[in-house]
Amino acid sequence: MSNPTTLFEKVWADHVVVQETADIPAVLYIDLHIIHEVTTPQAFSVLRANGLRVRRPDLTLATLDHSTPTTPVTTFKDLLVAGEGAANQVRQMEQNCEEFGLDLLGYGSGKRGIVHVIGPELGATQPGKTIVCGDSHSSTHGAFGALAFGIGTTEVGHVLATQCLLQRKPKTLAVNVDGTLPAGVTAKDVILAVIGKIGVDGGTGHVIEYHGDAVTALSMEERMTICNMSIEGGARAGMIAPDDTTIDYLQGRPRSPQGSDWDTAVARWRSLRTDDGARFDKSVSLNASELTPMVTFGTNPGMVVGINEPVPNSDDASFRKALDYMQVESGKPMTEATVDVVFVGSCTNGRLSDIEEAARVLEGRKVAAGVRMLVVPGSEQVKADAEARGLDKIIEAAGAEWREAGCSMCIGMNGDIAQPGQLSVSTSNRNFEGRQGVGARTVLASPATAAASAIAGRIADPRNYS
Amino acid sequence: MKPVRSIQSKTVVLPTRDIDTDQIIAARFLTTTSKEGLGKNVFYDLRYNKDGSEKSDFILNKPDAKGCGILVAGNNFGCGSSREHAPWALLDYGFEAVISTEIADIFRSNSLKNGLLAISVDEQTHGWLLENPGVDVTIDLESTSISLAGDRTVEFGIDGFSRHCLLEGIDQLGFLSQQLDTIENFEETRSWKP
Predict the structure, then answer these.
(1) Does B149 have pLDDT greater than 90?
(2) Buried b / exposed e across A259-276, counting CB within 10 Å, b at 16+?
(3) The domain at A294-465 falls in which architecture?
(4) A26-29 and A164-167 beta bridge pairing
(5) How near does any CA of chain B get to the CA of A280, in Å?
(6) Domains A171-241+267-289 and A294-465 alike in fold
(7) How far is B27 from chain A (nearest CA, A)?
(8) Which of A82, A143, A260, B15 has the fewest CB atoms within 10 Å of its CB?
(9) Domain B6-189 belongs to what architecture?
């Protein structure tokens, strides 16, 4: 009988091409490499300079998302909405894909979208795969029981040229969430609470495995929201063991295995779980039943409180600096803050169920005067699905903007930004200083909390808008 | 890559915790297709006012900071986005090393691949460095030790392979490419195909 092992250890072991030693890291095989326009141009330049080709175009998924405007694009001129640099980056990506023989899911494909939305949507993201992308939110794909993590541009070049990476085996952190989520409390609130508990560096050097009743009860889209923000706790990857929910989600998707290959794959996927008695290097537990909607009050995702709780106090200089930037006072709840901008979208919360969650709150109501609300689908497919359900009509009737797919106001490099001093309630993943525009103040929240705040004109508890 | 053996410089101290890569290089400066020229935008919103004038109270704008090649930063430096533009920008600005109690995983990996020595030291050493800005420090990669103002020496940890590549100026892509036969064999013999 072999030693009990964790889900992560099984997927890791299945991809080791050369074992690591004290002197040399492991050579780890990558099953799916997702690329976008912002973190690849310099990697393609390295390939070009060395006369190298993309070794496995069939394992490479290319799209455009970060520096694309969320207004309609039919000509190059339309790209200039995001600025000349951004437009050139998109054009460069199109040229690089052409030159290196890659199928780009770009304009006109109907499949363009945020890297971490389209991988799962196409069925390319599957249990047991190793998945990387030059984007730290690659951890999203771990929701399927894949080992997925963000890499830098040098490593993008390594994968393009060799389909492998040099990696040291990380440690493991178990995050157990038991209990039942109360009404109005979502996956976003769970992961914000987890980061609040472990801190923004609590997962550094570790891969997280999320388990417990409250995790297995979640849909795939909710699990993606959880795994997405693993990096905000410092962990490059977060994983959830595949189960019926995972398998049901993947069945019939364009890049899922077909026919007898499907049955073989499902049998393999079902073996991907942590054995009883397997050891984690660290573990933490949360009780879902005790959670409330969560909002951030500071300038990193670990600075988070329950929506009706007072903002904590500390004399620490970094803490005071964050509160000064946010113009937030200790001792008062965040519900006193006036809202200027609301953003629903991103790889964290830009999927169909997120748009539905916001639309449920918006239906029959109006966005408060003076508040700008953007709802941005995570992909062209999400946009089409939402429109087929009439969600765009509900969103527009409420006075919010329904836009084209992309990263939008999560990253502030595509024309969608908040203005200096504005307070933005955002379903994205980072409330860093200036993340959504120079001087913009970001409060992270769930789509329901964001929509409730848009209606109230101040940060609002979504449970009062059910 | 140019070999890195030892770095000798005065330090500049940025004590804030959790400095993310958005602070190091904001997303609006990532609309570039090259690695060069990012230094002018490093820590832009901390360095400059809205009108483009320098913020006189920011540490990098003080006369003493000019020419300092070693940045001493608060815990968890480089967290957040995986953008390799962060080490590119720090190197282009003139930094050769970053010292903290903890360096975020992806930032460290990116830095070491570009010759920016991102290293962690114990809390006591870190505390001393925070309290003594502008001291002369020598980081010796061969012996993995830091000489603090010439009067004492402490060790630092670094992955052995990264150290070897830095000392010899080895490009990791070249190293990986030498494994291509083994990689092909792995692809042919694995029990399932992606």
Answers:
(1) no
(2) eeeeeebbebbeebbbee
(3) 2-Layer Sandwich (3.30)
(4) antiparallel
(5) 19
(6) no
(7) 6
(8) A260
(9) Alpha-Beta Barrel (3.20)
**Where do the structural domains in chain B lie, given as residue ranges?**
6-189
> Which residues in chain B touch residue A439, judged by CB atoms under 8 angstroms apart?
45, 50
Q: What is the mean pLDDT of chain B?
A: 96
Secondary structure in 3-state letters for A46-108: HHHHCCCCCCCHHHEEEECCCCCCCCCCCCHHHHHHHCHHHHHHHHHHHHHHHHCCCCEECCC
Model pLDDT, residue A134 = 98
- Mean per-residue pLDDT for B14-34? 96
Q: Which residues of chain A have pLDDT under 70?
A: 1
B65 token code pair: 């900071």
Interchain proximity B192–A268, CB inside 8 Å: yes
Nearest C-alpha of chain B: how many angstroms from A312? 18
Task: Identify all chain A residues contacting B31, using CB atoms and an 8 Å cutoff.
Answer: 38, 67, 82-83, 85-86, 88-89, 413
pLDDT reported for residue A167? 98
Domain ranges of chain A: 7-167, 171-241+267-289, 294-465
What pLDDT, on the 0 to 100 scale, is given for residue B1?
80
Architecture field, domain A171-241+267-289 = 3-Layer(aba) Sandwich (3.40)
Three-state secondary-structure class, residue A434: coil
Given the cut 0.95, state whether the ipTM is greater than it.
yes
pLDDT at B80: 97
Could you give the CA distance from residue A31 to residue A15 in angstroms, rounded to a whole number?
A: 9
pTM of this structure: 0.98
Query: What is the average per-residue pLDDT within B104-113?
Result: 97
Give B29's DSSP letter: G
A204 secondary structure, DSSP code = T
B74: which chain A residues are within 8 Å (Cβ-Cβ)?
318
Model pLDDT, residue A1: 54
Domain A7-167 has CATH 3.30.930.10: no
Looking at the complex, report in whole angstroms how far the Cα of residue A391 sits from the nearest Cα belonging to chain B.
31
Which residues between 109 and 138 in chain A have a beta carbon less than 8 angstroms from any beta carbon of chain B? 126, 129, 134-136
